[in-house]
Amino acid sequence: MNDVAVTSAPWWRSLYAQVLLAIVVGAVLGHYLPDFAVQLKPLGDGFIKLVKLVIAPVIFFTVATGIAEAGAGGRLGRTTGKALVYFMAVSTLALVIGLIVANVVQPGAGMGVDPATLDPKAVKDYVGKAEEQTIVAFLLAIIPDTFVGAFTGGQVLPVLFIAVIFGVSVSSLGVSGARVVQGLHAGSDVFVRMVGMLMKFAPVGAFGAFAFTIGKYGVDAIVNLAALIATFYLTSALFIALVLGAIAHFSGFSLWALLRYLREEIWLVIGTSSSEAALPSLMSKLERAGCAKSVVGLVVPTGYSFNLDGTNIYMTLAALFIAQATGVELTLQQEITLLLVAILSSKGAAGVTGAGFITLAATLAVVPSVPVAGMALILGIDRFMSECRAVTNFIGNAVATIVVATWEGALDAGALAVALNDSKSKNC
After folding, report:
1. Could you give the domains of the chain?
2. Phi and psi at residue 291, in whole multiples of 5°?
3. pTM score, two decimals?
4. What local confidence, expressed as pLDDT, does residue 352 receive?
5. Closest to 209 (Cα-Cα) out of 380, 395, 48, 15
6. Which of 44, 127, 182, 399 has its CA 20 to 30 A from that of 311?
7. What's phi and psi for 100, nearest 5 deg?
8. Who wins on pLDDT, 289 or 133?
9. How big is the CA angle at 399 (ends 161 and 314), to the nearest 5 degrees?
10. Which stretch of DSSP H or E encloses residue 345?
């Protein structure tokens, strides 16, 4: 331990310490100078745009290279199938937990809000976007109009679709495909290096985003709906500790060691309120921790659309909160209907800020007795809820990737142990 302490870099040089400091400074600035803090929003938006700039290429090179090297056929289908089964099971459990907690705690009970006093215009944009989300439209959107269009649309799944086709095609070339694989490796190295460069700006992005959040909405928004926020954060924390912790334990690794290993990315997600901000870095770290490139390339991008544990807890919890706050008594049948629709509407939501709110609107639409305008009650605190959603989603996908890699026999247990132990040593 002492040797590590002597040779390691000073704590202030580490990215997670810089991001944490940036969040604290941003919060203080947002509280005392809110008007100025609101103007810092472009710093957070700009950093997320920088990261999104490399997400598509990183996914393409990772998936295409992994499939081209591993070969097409049964393994690709098995990996995808196992991932989807895991996603469906765990994300549905998250929805059920949110529903149970809302019924037990009842954070909205006694508020006595008159639905007639709510302003439906406040959530009009979210409702409009929710109405556009249909299963058919979602599936068709996975297929891009052109090959290049997959990289310019800003969506993850079209890039994944193209990368899979490309990787399978390269693997079928035989010996001549080796040159293409070398090119893919070279391209991957370039973008990995680019991600490392962009991550240096993470503290600036976290500072601007968090200063804007506090300056725009203030701590009063948290105080006014403290019961809902506390219930959601506590439920998410217990889900991570108990559910994901148990899954990690039975899969042969420590969740706490994994959280230490990914601490920089977790603080980045908190600061920017977006799990996408840490997607490229997550993929790189999971490969370094022994997960096969092909598994990382398939599971992580797919999980960002299909395995949103935090969003799922939020949806059922927030839906029942609105019903309780507006005095609407839901029958067991209505709650089950809400749950079944949420299982579908939660799939395909992007891991970006506001997606959970849009998905909530789509879910509420099937239960007419719950006023969609009731979403206006939580509009002011959604940004604070978004941070917890994003962190829970992020951790859930990290665990899912290691679990699927274990199932596939595509995990280097030695590399995982070294990575997790190194993170512990550095923390000491």
Report:
1. 2-427 (1.10.3860.10)
2. -75, 135
3. 0.80
4. 44
5. 48
6. 44
7. -65, -45
8. 289
9. 85
10. helix 332-345
